[in-house]
Write a structure and sequence with these properties.
about 25% helix, about 190 residues, 5 helices, alpha+beta, single chain
């Protein structure tokens, strides 16, 4: 049975596990370095290219988080270490949050709120993100899954389910400029 309160440091290091509150959003340099070491074989350039590819493909009102064993260092189901089945065998689980990303998916766990991941198990989950998934998998040298969720579901996953994640890209606050019926901004 998986831990109810998984530690983000299950990589076999001697470091003490962080407190339970730290297992949710894990935006520390330590976690980023763990992700680079595990998912990118320690190659910071590949990590940077991965982030650049994401930024070029995702609107600014969307945040992107990484979940799963690339963050925690071990599989949720059985506690096996990342890449236990050999190099490049563990996947990277991305979640696109907000920005209407769920509208680009056809397969859902919660219709309109939380998609199934675009993956080998659900290759039809989103036609729109197939090229991005291929590009990211090529950069990472491993399978990448892409899922979309609403801000509400992310909030619930974080606050009530204590699911670990690492924010790869923060949502940017963008002000929507008001326009009149002709598409012109209002007078100052």
């Amino acid at each position: 049975m998986p831990d109810e309160n998984p530690s983000i440091d299950k990589t076999g290091s001697d470091a003490a596990s962080p407190d339970p509150a730290a297992t949710r959003e894990t935006g520390t340099d330590e976690v980023r370095e763990r992700v680079i070491r595990l998912a990118f074989g320690g190659d910071r350039r590949r990590y940077d290219e991965f982030i650049r590819t994401l930024r070029e493909s995702i609107p600014p009102d969307v945040s992107v988080v990484l979940r799963g064993s690339a963050v925690t260092g071990s599989r949720w189901e059985d506690g096996a270490p990342f890449d236990a089945d050999g190099p490049g065998t563990s996947d990277m689980d991305l979640t696109l949050i907000g920005g209407g990303m769920v509208k680009h998916f056809e397969v859902f766990y919660i219709p309109g709120l939380h998609s199934a991941p675009l993956s080998d198990a659900h290759p039809d989950a989103s036609v729109v993100f197939v090229p991005l998934r291929r590009a990211l998998s090529a950069v990472a040298g491993r399978p990448v899954t892409i899922q979309a969720t609403s801000d509400l579901v992310q909030f619930l996953r974080e606050k009530t389910m204590n699911q670990p994640y690492y924010t790869l890209i923060e949502k940017q606050d963008t002000e929507v400029e008001e326009v009149d019926d002709a598409g012109d901004p209002p007078p100052a």
